[in-house]
Design a protein that fits this description.
By secondary structure, this protein is mostly helical. Helices cover 86% and strands 0% of the residues. Helix 1 crosses helix 9, helix 6 packs antiparallel against helix 7 and helix 15 runs antiparallel to helix 16.
């Protein structure tokens, strides 16, 4: 998988991830305005537990299947690649049934352990998703292994669209019955969306089945790995990959475990106040970080088959090129997200949650603190994808374990300080991202001996980010008195994006050939040349 294929695949998944997160924001923003911090505390207690069980299906299994598929396709073993798909389907279906049973029948035990018994109905409502997402993940992994990212992207967008529409509708309809039931209705949307995602990607598979089986019939290789060996390899690969690419969900799980209990036991807050604070952190501030996280995760998932294929084919040049490009792209994504969210954190919260003004002070501070670690999250996620593609699965696990230990220790200590409360959890999360980035980056250097161009990959994106930050602050302050907060934020973000893009091009942080590698890249290059930007 060359540079062009990698960039195209990353772009397709990145755009889908961005659309998915925008839809998620469309969902969470009105939801938070409808059910408030109390309702979001119920929803956000259910969601991290669900995500922790789901993440194997959405991240680990597709990445593992794509890695196993791409390695076999690179060697022309199409029949064995399809065997991986078939066996994975059986394995993941059984896994989904087990996870559904654990969450559905263990809901009461879970919410009591997390100190938020009002979240019971939300946990029960979201459990059925675990029956369908694992099946969808098998199709996604198989297509990604064939370097076909469109099926994954399309199923993601359809799934999220249905989830948003049904979740919001149910929340509004059920609100008269109380915020607990309304939160459960929004969670139920998360169970309905995957049903449609499965239908869409199954139809795509059936449409492409003829071409898939044509390649299988042309496969003349006699090598056939046993079913037991394939399942064993899938589990061995998928579990470390799950941990390695699931940085944010695991950090969120740390918040779910400690924050509510520490606020009540150590910081001196009552149950109601604790719910408000927890909702402000996890329901208002944290979801905004999902947008850069989705882009970083798309990068990481694209890195796995790209690096695996290059390594399997013994193409050292392609391997080094993709790894360097991965770091640079993670910085190009992470820097504007981090800097931009930090400089106008409070205006963004006021724009997104106009009906929750009382919570904006706390949530905006949490957003600023979380944004400080966003660039490290992008680096950590991308380096994890590289390590998994190299087959160094345990290395990415050590990184996340180190970060999780730091997260848990600091959250436990800082959240118990009354003056910090949930801000302590946000600080802990950013420091954990930094820890994981350092460990994963060091591992990539150790295993590959690669030399990174830090001037190109780090210095230039930061310089462009600083220029962008100045522009954002200036535009916002000049326009605030005339246009008000909402329009000023939108205008400042638009100007900032333009300044950042121009700065990257003028600093030669992106090349013409790299721009051409993206979908519609030739047209974009032509436009940039006409405007004298390239």
């Amino acid at each position: 998988m060359g540079r062009k294929s990698f960039l195209r695949g990353a772009a397709v998944l990145g755009v889908a991830g961005l659309l998915t997160q925008i839809l998620g924001a469309v969902f969470r923003i009105p939801l938070a305005n409808i059910i408030g911090t109390d309702g979001m505390a119920y929803y956000q207690t259910a969601y991290p537990v669900y995500i922790f069980l789901l993440v194997f299906s959405t991240n680990g299994a597709p990445a593992a299947i794509s890695k196993m598929t791409s390695e076999r396709i690179a060697l022309g073993r199409y029949a064995e690649a399809h065997k991986v798909f078939r066996l994975s389907f059986v394995f993941m279906s059984a896994f989904g049934l087990i996870c559904f049973s654990a969450l559905f029948f263990g809901a009461e035990v879970i919410v009591n352990a997390l100190g938020n018994e009002g979240a019971y109905y939300s946990v029960v409502a979201i459990a059925p998703a675990l029956l369908f997402v694992p099946i969808m993940s098998v199709f996604r992994g198989y297509f990604q292994g064939m370097q076909e990212m469109v099926p994954t992207a399309l199923s993601q967008v359809i799934e999220q669209s249905v989830r948003v529409a049904t979740g919001l509708s149910l929340a509004v309809i059920l609100l008269p019955r109380g915020v607990e039931i309304a939160a459960a209705g929004s969670s139920l949307g998360g169970s309905i969306g995957p049903v449609f995602g499965v239908v869409v990607i199954t139809v795509i598979y059936l449409i492409r089945k003829k071409n898939i089986f044509f390649r299988i019939e042309s496969d003349k290789s006699n090598e056939q790995e046993s079913a037991g060996s394939i399942i064993k390899t899938l589990a061995i690969i998928a579990i470390p990959i799950t941990i390695g690419v699931s940085i944010q969900p695991i950090m969120n799980l740390g918040d779910a475990i400690f924050v509510m209990n520490r606020l009540q036991d150590a910081a001196g807050f009552g149950y109601s106040a604790s719910k408000d604070l927890y909702g402000a952190l996890t329901g208002f501030a944290a979801p905004i970080i999902n947008i850069p996280m989705a882009m970083a995760l798309s990068m990481a998932l694209s890195m796995v088959p790209a690096v695996a294929a290059a390594k399997s084919a013994g193409d050292t040049e392609a391997l080094n090129s993709n790894i360097n490009l991965g770091l640079r792209t993670s910085m190009i994504i992470g820097v504007p997200c981090s800097f931009g969210l930090m400089v106008i954190a409070e205006p963004i919260m006021l724009l997104l949650f106009p009906l929750q003004v009382e919570s904006s002070a706390i949530s905006s501070t949490c957003l600023l603190l979380l944004a400080a670690g966003t660039v490290f999250l992008c680096i950590a996620q991308t380096m994890a994808g590289i390590l998994q593609g190299l087959g160094k699965l345990s290395a990415s696990v050590w990184g996340i374990l180190a970060g999780f230990v730091v997260k848990c220790l600091l959250t436990y200590i800082l959240t118990g300080i009354p003056s910090l409360h949930v801000k302590g959890a946000a600080i802990a999360t950013s420091i954990a991202y930094l820890t994981i980035a350092i460990v994963n980056f060091g591992a990539v250097k150790r295993y590959t001996g690669i030399k990174f161009n830090f001037n190109l990959s780090v210095v230039k994106p930061i310089a462009a980010g600083l220029a962008m930050s100045v522009a954002v602050i200036a535009v916002y302050k000049v326009c605030l008195g005339m246009l008000g907060n909402s329009l000023s934020v939108i205008l400042s973000i638009g100007v900032g994006a333009c300044v950042y893009t121009v700065a990257l091009i003028k600093l030669n942080a992106v090349t013409e050939s790299e721009i051409k590698a993206f979908p519609k890249g030739n047209k974009l290059v032509s436009l940039l040349k006409k405007t004298k930007l390239l």
